[in-house]
Amino acid sequence: MTSSALSDDKPDKSENPENPEKTSKMVDTFPRWVLWATAALLAFTLVAVALVRVTGNGPDQLAEATKAERLLRFEDSPNGGVAVIDGVTGQLLTTVMGEQGFFRGAIRALTRDRISRKIGSEQPFKLMSRSDGRLTLFDPVSGQSIDLESFGSENAAIFAPFLTLQPQTKP
Fold first, then answer.
1. pLDDT category, 45, cuts 50, 70, 90?
2. β-bridge mates for residue 130, sequence order
3. How far is residue 150's CA from residue 130's CA, in Å, rounded to a whole number?
4. 86: closest CA among 107, 67, 75, 71?
5. How far is CA 122 from each of CA 36, 64, 86, rounded to the nearest angstrom?
6. Helices H / strands E in the chain, number of each
7. Predicted TM-score (pTM) of this structure
8. Residue 81: alpha-carbon gap to chain centroid
9. Contact predicate 83/92, CB 8 Å
10. Hey, which residues does 68 pair with through a beta bridge?
């Protein structure tokens, strides 16, 4: 017998690609995790772009012009406070007493890089007031800066008086 004798002249359902029964039983071979990963990446990208646009803190955002600036040094004082010293004249402006968590944290963040590079505290930091009202504490030695407004206006207000303080007079 030949193979043609065995066939009953009916087309085999598995050989007919247009057969709806065969099409419904086909297994999707594309991995679902790829679709989920692509969807997650798109969602993350949209959220990131929206945050940059809303906050204005993107890499293409230029800092506003500097309205006022002052060079400042910060030193630990014997009474547990932090002495704020004019970076040009070397005169004491004020001593910040108490815990002052944000103040100390901001100074510590900038001095950490100086310590790792074995650079002393002789070089002053630059406190800048921008034309849009923002305050920036900049370390000219390391090139790092902290936009103080990013931590809230109350925290930035801690540094604002240092721009205009006059040196303390000794009695």
1. very high
2. 66
3. 14
4. 71
5. 54, 28, 11
6. 5, 6
7. 0.58
8. 30
9. yes
10. 129
Name the CA radius of gyration of the chain, rounded: 33
pLDDT at 83: 84
Question: Tens digits of per-residue pLDDT, 50-78?
Answer: 888 777 666 656 566 777 788 888 888 88
What does the domain layout of the chain look like in residue ranges?
A: 12-55, 66-163
What residue ranges in 7-156 does DSSP mark as E strands? 66-76, 82-86, 92-96, 125-130, 135-138, 145-147
Spatial separation of the C-alpha atoms in residues 48 and 25, rounded to whole Å: 41
Four-residue CA torsion sign, 140, 144, 149, 153: negative
Q: What is the pLDDT of residue 63?
A: 63
How far is the CA of 47 from the CAs of 43, 44, 67, 84, in angstroms? 6, 5, 33, 41
φ and ψ at residue 144, rounded to 5 degrees: -85, 150
**Separation CA 127–CA 148 (nearest Å):** 10
Report whether 145 contacts 136 (CB < 8 A).
yes
Q: What's the rounded Cα separation, in Å, for the pair 137 and 107?
A: 9
Q: Is 60 helix (H, G, I), strand (E, B) or coil?
A: coil
